[in-house]
Design goal:
Number of domains: 3
Mean pLDDT: 82
Strand content: 15-25%
CATH class of the largest domain: Alpha Beta
């Protein structure tokens, strides 16, 4: 009886599993490879694996991007539970720099016509000025070991060799062209789609997504040591939509936005420190500071730049508190500008902070330090003009004769007063202390 009642449930679960297995997930990777774009693709890979999708296709068009983000995505592709297909599309798209590594890491690499792949030399390597060769001494010294390369050359070789080994390792894993993997890193070579197919850099060329899905049917791929044959005969396409998390990450991981949030956060805390009780600057400052710090920690940040920015702001504030004829102030502005220039440790296009923005924030920082904070400091040094503290030292008029407790008129009001010396009506006295609604007064000395 129990087995009969469970049969419909088991049949339904089986049909649902088969339906999920027939899905092909498609996720876009457009623009620079960075924290936001990679986060979307990584989440899609995990979700597609959990949904037992037949395959996941990364529709890619990228000029390259950050090395850290690219390596994070490659690690997820290599450990994926679902076959990952990289499709460089549409026509005119490219898989440059970091995109080449992602394509090589994928189980299947495909390209649309009129696309290209390559140019994988690390962009952090700046062109070196040509050096004139050193003259060789004559004689037996020709057999001596060559001189040790300069530190810059040694670092360049390390970076290039690391990139070559990394891409060649991916090529060996996926059975792709190992020699071209070295050439695209060392020489920055590029291939159009037809050449990439001929040289075993990619697996197939497809006009569009439908053509690609048909071409994938029946192909065998190895996923975590298990060979799978792709069944695309009746596959349905599930397109991953860009969600709010991707949009937020795209905003706060923009170097200019993250930099601005960081500086605004510091401004807010400084204003709250010099004018306690405003609350709003502190709340806004903490929120902006946390958002800016979160955005920057996902970017290649030079922490020496962060330290110089903090030092610069500190020096500008110190100039207000301990005037040094502008020495600390000018030094603070210089440190702030240098730190801002050094803040992002990457030469990738789109990941630098515009000099105009740096100049604007430097000017605003100087203005806040010299004028706003200066005004707050001057206000704190001024005598109290309101409240009980403002009444001390002022005069009052005695309204009756008394030698201990009586009444006086002060500030247009009648107050209870206490004295240690006899006072006469109409006499002017000095307020020396205030205890609640009782004044302590004393006779004026001539």
């Amino acid at each position: 009886m129990m087995s009969r009642s469970l049969a419909p449930v088991l049949l339904t679960l089986l049909l649902c599993a088969q339906a999920r297995a027939g899905e092909v997930w498609v996720v876009p990777l457009v623009g620079a490879v960075g924290p936001a774009s990679v986060d979307l693709v990584i989440r899609a890979i995990h979700d597609a694996g959990a949904a037992q999708a037949e395959a996941l296709i990364i529709r890619m068009d990228t000029p390259g991007g950050l090395d850290k983000s690219m390596r994070d995505l490659v690690k997820v592709i290599l450990a994926a539970d679902v076959p990952v297909v990289t499709f460089v599309a549409p026509n005119g798209a490219r898989a440059a720099s970091a995109g080449t590594y992602i394509a090589y890491a994928s189980h299947i690499a495909a390209m649309a016509p009129a696309t290209n792949i390559g140019s994988s030399t690390p962009v952090s390597i700046a062109p070196q000025a040509p050096q004139s060769p050193m003259p060789k001494p004559a004689g037996p010294t020709d057999t001596e070991a060559p001189p040790t390369p300069a530190p810059a050359d040694a670092m360049t070789k390390k970076v290039v060799n690391d990139a070559v080994a990394y891409l060649q390792g991916l090529a060996e894993l996926r059975g792709r062209n190992v020699e071209w993997a070295e050439a695209t890193v060392r020489e920055g070579v590029n291939l159009r789609a037809s050449e990439a197919l001929e040289q075993n850099v990619i697996d197939l060329i497809a006009e569009d997504m439908n053509t690609l899905i048909q071409a994938l049917h029946g192909r065998s791929v190895e996923v975590k040591g298990e060979t799978r044959q792709l069944d695309m005969q009746s596959a349905t396409v599930h397109r991953v939509a860009v969600d709010w998390r991707h949009e937020v990450l795209s905003i706060i991981t923009d170097p200019s936005i993250a930099y601005g949030l960081l500086i605004i956060g510091v401004y807010g805390l400084i204003l709250e420190f010099y004018n306690p009780g405003m609350i709003f600057p502190a709340v806004l400052g903490v929120i902006c500071l946390l958002l800016g710090a979160y955005g920057l920690q996902m970017l290649p940040v030079n922490y020496a730049g962060v330290a110089l920015i903090v030092l610069g702001i500190g020096l500008m504030v110190a100039e207000v508190m301990t005037p040094t004829l502008g020495v600390l102030g000018v030094g603070g502005v210089v440190a702030f500008v240098i730190g801002s220039v050094l803040l992002i440790d990457s030469d990738m296009p789109g990941y630098d902070i515009p000099y105009a923005l740096i100049g604007t924030f430097a000017a605003v920082s100087a203005a806040i330090s010299f004028f706003v904070v200066g005004a707050a400091m001057r206000a704190r040094r001024q005598p109290v003009v309101t409240g009980a503290g403002a009444m001390l030292g002022k005069t009052a008029v005695v309204l009756e004769d008394f030698d201990a407790t009586g009444t006086v008129r002060a500030f247009g009001e009648i107050w209870q007063a206490h004295t240690s010396t006899p006072l006469r009506v109409g006499e002017e006295v000095i307020i020396t202390a205030i205890d609640g609604l009782t004044l302590t007064v004393a006779r004026q000395e001539n």
